[in-house]
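FIELD: query
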Amino acid sequence: MSASDLALQTRRRANLRHLIQSLDQVGVQSRSLQAEIIAGMKGPDLQRIIDGGRISDAFAREVEWAMHRPHGWLDRQPEDAPDD
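FIELD: result
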């Protein structure tokens, strides 16, 4: 994995964690329910991604669509990732 791909994966994972924290704050604390809301997936699959699994471009765009974020939001630096 190149340095730029590693940096992209790090940003995507940080922003994904931000989305999960947002769900936690509104009372959605079950990993299974979070996974279903975020990307229509199973809880263990989401956990694997959080723990270091690769986030593909297609998956990133699906998450952005499902969570009503603009195209490319998951790729931004975490400090550039607004809550809404």
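FIELD: remark
The radius of gyration is 12 Å.
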